[in-house]
Amino acid sequence: MTRAAVPGLPSPHPIGELLPALFAEDDFAQRFTAGLDTVLAPVFATLDNLPAYFQPRLAPGDFLDWLASWVAVDVDPAWPDEVRRAVVGRAMELHRWRGTRRGLTERLRLVLGAGAEITDGGGVSWASAPGHVPLPAHGGEVLVRVWPLGGAALDEDQVLAVVRAGCPVHLTCRVEIVPGPPGRAEG
Length: 187
Known about the structure:
- By secondary structure, this protein is α+β, with helices and mostly antiparallel strands.
- It has eight helices and three strands.
- It has a three-stranded mixed sheet with strand order 1-2-3, with helices on one face.
- α4 runs parallel beside α5 and α7 packs antiparallel against α8.
- The longest helix is centred in the first third of the chain and has 22 residues, at 27-48.
- It is elongated, with a radius of gyration of 27 Å.
């Protein structure tokens, strides 16, 4: 929706009422200023409600995408409106934890309604005695097991997109979609 053309939106400050008495009963002047009121009413409505535009849960949908760009969040237009609003609203927290187990788990839960278990392959090596050269570190593969929390099946492409966006670039992320949390008794 665009705020430039809201049919029937009244102006809180009609210009016709502010004209000098000479033009107060002039039909042409009143119709002319009514046209200006139609143009200015959305501007007044936007300015009167400006603080709401900066709150993700209240901002108009088209402004929400722009607000997302301000906080450097990529939102998928296919996501439901409430998910987009939640991601933009929690942008700072998501940025703070980006590239970590906690950040990836939270993003999967928030965006897809999915639980996750993330197993890091390591990548650290050490020597048991001073002066010994440690063995080379493992290449660093991260295993991400994902399962639906709400019962609906997960879309593999969406899961991969979220994992790619949250997995550190120097690591290889392998994704497995499982029916439920690992270690849960079936039956």
